[in-house]
Amino acid sequence: MKITEKEVRYVAGLSNLALTDAEVAKFQTDLDGILQHMDRLNEIDTTGVDPMAQVLFEGEETATLRADVPMPPLGNQAALANAPQAGAGYFKVPKVIER
User: Fold this and answer.
1) How far is CA 94 from the centre of its chain?
2) Is 40 a domain residue?
3) Residue 80 forms part of a structural domain
4) What's residue 54's pLDDT?
5) What is the pLDDT of residue 98?
6) Residue 14 lies in a domain
7) Which residues span the domain enclosing 26?
8) What is the pLDDT of residue 63?
9) Residues contacting residue 32 through CB under 8 Å, at least 6 positions apart
10) How would you classify residue 48: left for phi > 0, otherwise alpha for psi between -120 and 50, otherwise beta?
């Protein structure tokens, strides 16, 4: 395996996740499978294949994106109108990071 238990626990810590030993083993297997798949993709010969800037680059008639139309901003008062708690023009939220 390319991914170690220590690396899985490190990533879980960055994400504020408390994983059980079984979950660590499962994610270790899953992440290792992803890396193996990426290694297989890296073996593909892409000589002569131009890189794509975006998927819908030349798909004007089939593009599913809406037109970009400028609109006036929402404004603080309207944005905070349904806020459970607001103060000084901002949303008030409980502290979630204890580090």
Assistant:
1) 23
2) yes
3) no
4) 64
5) 72
6) yes
7) 1-45
8) 63
9) 1, 2, 3
10) left
Query: What six digits make up the tokens of 67?
Result: 């037109």
CATH number at residue 5: 1.10.20.60
Residue 30 lies inside a defined structural domain of this protein: yes
Q: Which residue type does 74 have?
A: L
Residue 58's pLDDT is 60
Looking up tokens 């294949």 gives: 49
Cβ neighbours for 4, distance < 8 A, ≥ 6 positions apart = 28
Q: What is the pLDDT of residue 59?
A: 58
How many domains would you assign to the chain?
1
Task: Give 22-71 pLDDT, tens digit per residue.
Answer: 999 999 999 999 999 999 999 999 898 888 766 655 656 666 667 789 99
Q: Which segments within the chain are labelled E, that is strand?
A: 86-87, 90-91
CA distance linking residue 32 with residue 2, whole number of Å: 6
